[in-house]
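Listing S7. Sequence submitted for prediction.
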Amino acid sequence: MNERSNKMAEKVQKVGVERVQGFLYYIDKQGDVSRAKMARGGKKGGKPEKVAKAGVKKAKGFLYFLDKKGDISRAKMVNA
C-alpha cells in the first residue's frame, strides 16, 4: 500500500454501530448516526431513525461517514 491511501480518511469518534443489511447509514445534521431503509425495486425507503447519539461537530470541507468498523470518520472533499 502506498502512503496516500493511508491518509484518505481520519477517524473522528468511536461509536461501534453494528450494521443491519438493507439500511443506509449516515451522519445526520445533529452529528448523530442515523439509518433509513433502502428503497428497493419500486418500494419506497423508510423514515430515518437515530441509531447512536454522537454529537459530532462537522467542519466545512469534509465528508462525514460511518466506516467499516461502525465508527464516524471524515474525508477531505476535493472541491470544497
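Caption to Listing S7: primary sequence and predicted C-alpha cells for the chain studied. The chain has one domain: 3-76. Residues 1-5 have pLDDT under 50 and may be disordered.
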